[in-house]
Amino acid sequence: MDLSLDAVLRGELRAEDVRITPATLERQAAAAEGAGNPQLADNLRRGAELVAFGDDELLQLYDRLRPGRSSAAELAAMADELEARHAVRCAAMVREARAAYLRRGLVT
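and the corresponding structure tokens:
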């Protein structure tokens, strides 16, 4: 398969043809860790968990995570949903965000 703009314009390439894989993100995370950037490594590993999610699902998760968009109970349910779908690191991040939002009075 030709990975070029011409191939895209001819309709020969789809988004699925060029999506990143969890394995690639894990290799990038290992490189980031090796370069002394553990925060980037964590972000890449969370991204690897989300590869299995559809674009619409990701946008909904992002929107629901923004301060004031969800209640504390809804954020707890989101974390449980993520964990059930094997996105354990993402679930932990949502729980951390929930706790911070509660401390700051951004959710009830």
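(Above: one complete record from the training split.) Helices lie at 5-9, 22-34, 38-50, 55-65, 72-84, 88-103.
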